[in-house]
């Protein structure tokens, strides 16, 4: 491939185009044949599906969805905070941050010690996992998929 004065090599997964080949749009090979790159991707996906199983795939999808939802929630809370602070700074509203902190802490503090600790967070995570793995045949596969989906999406 030529790009200006620079010569670029065709990608390894792409076969160079043959100008003499008919441009009918139909593949020259059989309909089920894949190029080497697509073949590698398909084999990697198949291997992952076989190892994780359906519960793992559901876990992966749930992890991706949870990460997206938590990101969107963080954006929403951040925008609301900025908006409220601007209104408070301009004198339109008076925010009682101490009361807001107490109310939020009441909702998330599971052991009642008045602080949000690792123990409280673990209890909420375990509660969420209990809901998500309810009656699944492979909870370990789901959990691995959930972690992969949340981490690498």
From TrEMBL:
Keyword list, A-Z: Membrane, Transmembrane, Transmembrane helix
Region entry Disordered, spans: 12-34
InterPro entries membership: EF_Hand_1_Ca_BS, FUN14
Gene Ontology cellular-component terms listed: membrane
UniProt cross-references to PANTHER family, sorted A to Z: FUN14 DOMAIN CONTAINING (PTHR21346), TRANSMEMBRANE PROTEIN (PTHR21346:SF10)
Family listed: Belongs to the FUN14 family.
Protein name (database record): EF-hand domain-containing protein
Organism field: Diacronema lutheri (Unicellular marine alga)
């Amino acid at each position: 491939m030529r790009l200006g004065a620079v010569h670029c090599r065709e990608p390894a997964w792409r076969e160079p185009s043959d100008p003499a080949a008919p441009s009918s749009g139909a593949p020259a090979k059989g309909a089920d044949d894949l190029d080497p790159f697509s073949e590698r991707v398909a084999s990697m996906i198949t291997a992952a599906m076989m190892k994780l199983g359906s519960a793992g795939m559901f876990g992966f999808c749930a992890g991706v969805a949870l990460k997206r939802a938590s990101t969107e929630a963080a954006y929403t809370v951040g925008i609301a905070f900025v908006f409220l602070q601007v209104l408070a700074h301009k004198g339109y509203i008076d925010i009682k941050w101490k009361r807001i902190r107490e109310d939020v802490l009441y909702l998330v503090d599971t052991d009642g010690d008045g602080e949000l600790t690792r123990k409280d967070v673990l209890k909420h995570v375990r509660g969420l996992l209990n809901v998500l793995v309810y009656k699944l045949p492979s909870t370990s596969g789901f959990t691995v998929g959930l972690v992969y989906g949340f981490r690498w999406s």
